[in-house]
Amino acid sequence: MAEKRLSHAYLLTGPEGPERENAARQLAAALLCAAPEPPCGRCRDCRKVREGVHPDVIWVRREKKDEQLRREILVGQIRQMTADAALAPNEAERKVYIVDQADRMNQQAQNALLKALEDPPGHACFILCAAAADALLPTVRSRCIRTDAGGRDQRDDGMSELAKGYLEAAASGDRAEIVLYCMNRAKLSREETEAFAGQVRDAVRDVLCGRARDPGLGRDGLFHLAELMDKTEDYLRHNVQPKQIFGLLAAETLR
Ligand SMILES: [Zn+2]
User: Fold this and answer.
1) Which of 29, 107, 125, 171 has its CA at a distance of 20 to 30 angstroms from the CA of residue 250?
2) Does 131 share its domain with 240?
3) pLDDT tops 90 at residue 207
4) String of b and e for 153-169 (b: at least 16 CB within 10 Å)?
């Protein structure tokens, strides 16, 4: 991702879920961020991508019909996307289109996409997210750079950013720091909160397996956080709002 020479199309493979969405967001940020080693995570573009409000990052997902998600991504959606891709970006130097569940594009939709991949407008990039590459037409696949969503954004100590901040706050033992941390995240979306819980869980596992450094939590502290993330995921399943979840974490992170 640090390479500044960029391709127009990426195929991001991995199981559907917050980890893959997060990887797509990271990749989009890397494509838009102007820092020497993108994504820097701090510039306007990075922040907006992370918060899901960047006007030049456009998600294409299955549409709803009668309250049900359609089975497929339809050709009309892809045509609409490629028509939009011909227009100049709003504020970044490029526009990034993320097709979630690209493996749900029907054949017609894939052929429409293929045209855009063969002759992409100079400023447009496409990220196709799919469970497996072979669900896509070989002609589409061959025009994409493949990346695996399983390769989480590895920081030098092997932890993703969200989890790192939380674990460090937890390890500090400072209630004010934890409350502040949680307050600042109360506006995350459900998806981002899911991603947060997943990242903390992964980080805890990595520390327990010796793959990452313990920021000072100790075994009991790590197990406590793993339990809290169980609770968090359970609350998310029961539609508890992120704001309340971070309220809970503010109260319960310290035992
Ligand atoms: Zn940046």
Assistant:
1) 29
2) no
3) no
4) beeeeebbebbbbbbeb
Q: 154 CA to middle of ligand 1, Å?
A: 16
116 in the same domain as 19: yes
The CATH code of the domain that includes 129 is: 3.40.50.300
Distance 57 CA to ligand 1 centre (A): 14
147 CA to middle of ligand 1, Å?
Answer: 20
Same domain (yes/no): 46, 125: yes
Cross-strand pairs, 99:
60, 128
Give the pTM. 0.58
Which position has the token pair 């709803």? 64
| Dist. CA 66 → ligand 1 center (Å) | 39
Number of domains present in the structure of the chain? 2
Domain check: are 131 and 18 in the same one? yes
pLDDT (tens digit per residue) in 123-176:
999 999 999 888 899 999 888 887 777 644 333 344 567 788 899 889 988 887
Q: How far does residue 32's CA lie from ligand 1's centre (Å)?
A: 7
